[in-house]
Design brief:
CATH architecture of the largest domain: 3-Layer(aba) Sandwich
CATH class of the largest domain: Alpha Beta
Distance between the termini: 8 Å
Number of domains: 2
Strand order of the largest sheet: 2-3-1-4-5
Order of helices and strands: EHEHHHHHEEHHHEH
Largest sheet: 5 strands, parallel
Strand content: 5-15%
């Protein structure tokens, strides 16, 4: 069983996916794969610096030691759609390869995969069903500010995703993450119980 979990930035995808993991699912975090695997790949580092220069390396050209500064790279790609699309074309095939490797290594497990751009990139066919974690726009902004992202940048990143209402429409299941942690956990209990019969 393969479940794709998505939602707007700041809505709680990771919180919900970790809750499903506690209920027996294997979890893959696509953002973590990008962060820890893809952006650490020397080939990716080479093509990114070829396009954007060494300013996107930690410490710049002097002592970056080949590590990409994700904050610097994000500032570039969220300000320019062409750069964002280019980076997705570089990173996404490598993310998909990581998914395939994980699924092949343990094909009998129930998998939940965090996919921020699940619907934007028409990835539904990877999964048996899709889950959207949603909350109000104001709650998204509050959570992103609590993470240290200024409101202007938070709004900019939200605007690059499919409107949350469209994600809700396209999902098989929706978790509303506006209330207490207990409220979300209760919804996940019901979802996990429903999925045992699928």
């Amino acid at each position: 069983m393969f479940a794709g979990i998505t939602g707007g930035i700041g809505c709680g995808k990771s919180t919900a996916a970790r809750a499903l993991e506690r209920r027996g699912f294997r979890r893959l975090d696509s953002d973590q794969i990008v962060r820890d695997v893809v952006l650490a790949d020397p080939e990716v580092i080479a093509v990114v610096t070829s396009r954007h220069g060494t300013s996107v390396l930690e410490g710049g050209a002097k002592d970056g030691a080949g590590r990409i500064n994700r904050t610097a790279l994000a500032a570039i790609v969220f300000a320019n759609d062409a750069d964002r699309i280019w980076l997705e074309e570089v990173t996404h095939p490598r993310v998909f390869a990581a998914w395939r490797a994980a699924f092949s290594a343990d094909p009998d497990s129930r998998w939940v995969v965090e996919v921020p751009l699940l619907f934007e990139k028409d990835l539904e066919n990877w999964f048996d069903f899709t889950i959207c974690v949603a909350c109000s726009h104001s709650q998204q902004l509050v959570r992103l500010e609590q993470r240290g992202l200024p409101r202007v940048l938070a709004g900019q990143r939200i605007s690059k995703q499919l409107p949350l209402a469209r994600k809700i429409e396209r999902s098989d299941f929706v978790l509303w993450n506006e209330g207490s942690p207990e409220f979300l956990e209760a919804q996940i209990d019901r979802l996990a119980n429903a999925l045992t019969v699928i």
